[in-house]
Amino acid sequence: MHLVMFDIDGTLVESYDFDTECFQAAVKDVIGISVGPDWGRYRHVTDSGILSDIIEQSGLENDRERIFFDVKNQFVSRVEKYISCHDVSPIYGAFDFLSRLVKRQDVVLAFATGGWAESAKMKLDAAGIKLPGIALASSSDHYCRTEIMRVAEIRASKEDYDSKTYFGDGPWDQKASETLGYNFVSVGNRIRSAQSINDYAESDKALRYIGL
């Protein structure tokens, strides 16, 4: 059995840019701090991890619980508003590729995203990626990406896997995959890796990378 896991923003959905803008705006609204889009400077590149670092660096730890609650609500609200006014596209071929994998008896699928669960589900739905029954783990489960991936793996199935593959688009995805011993496939052109696809029009190549 092969476990095939996917990031969401920039990997399955064309949402990386507006997701970043909504997060920055939510932080600004709640604590009045402007944050840049250089997520690589944070210890954990997830919504919870980035926000934790911002709170710590700003000396606001005594107000952590309220800030988390308010920023998350503001962010989810902004994402929902954006989606209501704009079309959200899947990465080309993503739905067909996922549908192809769903039909296989030797594959188990999972989503593992650094975003919060509420916004992740909204973006998948908005992009037309509606495939019930696929396990999802997110920043709502843990601030650390490797732990999010572990949760997704457990939720997907309890059995042993012949291989584990993660599709992602950021250096943090690649690093987490290396840490956990996952086979990594990069999507798009934001990073370079030994195994990469521009989009899911290259589905046959992606299947070869999985080992199928």
Automatic annotation (TrEMBL):
Entries under SUPFAM superfamilies matching the protein: HAD-like (SSF56784)
Top-rank lineage group of the source organism: Bacteria
Protein name listed in UniProt: Haloacid dehalogenase
